[in-house]
């Protein structure tokens, strides 16, 4: 007798046939990632032996049949990424894994879990309203590892009752209307690795209890109303951090040198605060960004864990909002823009050879651009605009063949824009507000000493010859970048499928 029907990741269309219930011994029904439409048949609730139902990634409409809640053996229910509607008044007591993300569910949150063995609850990207209190402070959360309520319309304060969540690994509350301060009891979750509370109305400072989260790998508190200094204990105690996002708050004072202890950091975003002083010269201690050690672990975390708060969350890169989802394993970002940093750009930054995005714009930086900036071969986005930088553009910029975004406008830069390089392919708006000359600007370098023609020809192989080395390097860069993205997508899907199968096997055991 048929017990497993797995038709995931195909191109099936039409309704789910109600005749599927003729398979009365069916335990596993997986139709995820197709193009199925219509409603979930009421008759599915008659499959009394059903333990896994996967319908995510379709175009299903309507509500969840009440009969489905009566499946006494149902353990995994995957209904994410559809157009389902309705209220969720309760969670079936037998369910261990419930995914309803990216639908149109609304109303208040369930008042309790009703399950002492709930491992994962994902209600993110819906329209739930009201308070977190009843659900968060209910019993039955001791085994919950993944709790994701991001991007709803939840309001009120984050409750002070997290001591019960002893198994929690991921907490994602970003993109709501939560207010008040960060509760100190969040520091009592011993295994927490991912904490996302960005895009809310949280105020106050960072509670010192968070220093107890020694396993924390992602701390995302951006776009709130947080204030105070950035506490040094972040670098001293949270040494496993891969991603630290404090952007668009009201932090002030210096960026503490202790941040340099975050050798594993992959994304450091302190933009749009009131930070001042010099940029720490010890950022070359970032082992992953400098290429001294690989970052395979964090890549696998993002590929494997579909419930990561970073799925759908946003980082700012290349001047616009970019949703990275599974690409997070590839992102290496340092953003200190829109602060009041002064002094020179530390030459130590040029040792961050794996950095893809560097944004120091809208500060009060002075001095020259470091000559070794061209050593940062992985840079794709580079912004130094609206500072007080002086001197000429380093010729080493010609070695940055992956640049797709470049801006040095509104400084005090002088001289010729390096010729025969990718730098000249950018719009003149990337250079205005300086005393620069040469393409792409229309003003000629009439007052700039002309280089020796003979030496130029020796270096360039003649002024009329095609620079095949540059063309080949750009082509190779494009091909390499293309295949990195393609391979990441392949890995993402295959790893995710493997992960869910493993989880389901573990749950069944």
UniProtKB/TrEMBL annotation:
Q: Name one GO cellular component term.
A: plasma membrane
Pfam annotation, one family: LRR_8
SUPFAM superfamilies linked = L domain-like, RNI-like
Question: Per its UniProt entry, which superkingdom is the organism in?
Answer: Eukaryota
Which keywords describe this protein according to UniProt?
Cell membrane, Glycoprotein, Leucine-rich repeat, Membrane, Receptor, Repeat, Signal, Transmembrane, Transmembrane helix
Topology in the lipid bilayer is annotated as: Single-pass type I membrane protein
Looking at the UniProt entry, the stretches that span the membrane are: 468-491
Key word Ribonucleoprotein present: no
Localization, UniProt: Cell membrane; Membrane
Per the record, the similarity remark reads:
Belongs to the RLP family.
Q: What is this protein called?
A: Putative leucine-rich repeat domain, L domain-like protein
């Amino acid at each position: 007798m048929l017990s497993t029907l797995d038709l995931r990741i195909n191109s099936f269309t039409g309704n789910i046939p109600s005749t599927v219930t003729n398979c009365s011994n069916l335990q596993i029904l997986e139709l995820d990632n197709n193009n199925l439409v219509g409603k979930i048949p009421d008759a599915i609730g008659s499959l009394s032996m059903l333990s896994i139902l996967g319908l995510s990634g379709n175009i299903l409409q309507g509500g969840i049949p009440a009969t489905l809640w009566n499946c006494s053996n149902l353990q995994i229910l995957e209904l994410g990424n559809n157009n389902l509607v309705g209220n969720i008044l309760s969670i079936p007591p037998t369910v261990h894994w419930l995914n309803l993300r990216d639908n149109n569910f609304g109303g208040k949150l369930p008042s309790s879990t009703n399950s002492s063995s709930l491992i994962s609850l994902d209600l993110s990207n819906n329209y739930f309203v009201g308070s977190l209190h009843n659900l968060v402070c209910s019993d039955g959360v001791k085994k919950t590892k993944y709790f994701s309520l991001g991007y709803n319309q939840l309001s009120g304060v984050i409750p002070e009752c997290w001591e019960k969540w002893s198994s929690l690994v991921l907490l994602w509350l970003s993109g709501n209307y939560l207010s008040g301060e960060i509760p100190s009891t969040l520091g009592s979750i011993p295994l927490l690795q991912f904490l996302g509370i960005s895009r809310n109305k949280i105020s106050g400072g960072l509670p010192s209890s968070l220093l107890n989260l020694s396993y924390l790998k992602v701390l995302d508190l951006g776009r709130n109303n947080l204030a105070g200094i950035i506490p040094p204990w972040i670098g001293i105690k949270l040494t496993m951090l891969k991603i630290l996002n404090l952007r668009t708050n009201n932090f002030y004072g210096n960026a503490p040198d202790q941040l340099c202890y975050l050798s594993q950091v992959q994304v450091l975003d302190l933009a749009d605060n009131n930070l001042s002083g010099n940029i720490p010269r010890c950022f070359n201690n970032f082992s992953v960004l400098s290429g001294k050690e690989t970052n395979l672990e964090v890549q696998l975390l993002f590929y494997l864990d579909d419930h990561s708060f970073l799925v759908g969350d946003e980082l700012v890169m290349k001047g616009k909002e970019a949703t990275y989802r599974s690409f997070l394993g590839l992102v290496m970002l340092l953003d200190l823009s829109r602060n009041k940093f002064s002094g020179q750009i530390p030459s130590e930054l040029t040792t961050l050879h794996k950095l893809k995005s560097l944004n120091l714009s809208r500060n009060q930086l002075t001095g020259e651009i470091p000559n070794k900036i061209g050593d940062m071969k992985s840079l794709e986005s580079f912004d130094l605009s609206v500072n007080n930088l002086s001197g000429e553009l380093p010729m080493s910029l010609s070695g940055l063949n992956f640049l797709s975004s470049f801006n040095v406008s509104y400084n005090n830069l002088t001289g010729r824009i390096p010729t025969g390089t990718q730098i000249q392919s950018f719009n003149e708006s990337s250079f205005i507000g300086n005393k620069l000359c040469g393409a792409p600007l229309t003003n000629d370098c009439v007052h700039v000493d002309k280089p020796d023609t003979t030496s130029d020809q020796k270096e360039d192989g003649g002024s009329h010859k095609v620079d095949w080395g540059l063309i080949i390097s750009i082509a190779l860069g494009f091909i390499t970048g293309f295949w990195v993205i393609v391979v990441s997508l392949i890995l993402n899907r295959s790893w995710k499928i493997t992960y869910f199968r493993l989880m389901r096997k573990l749950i069944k055991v």
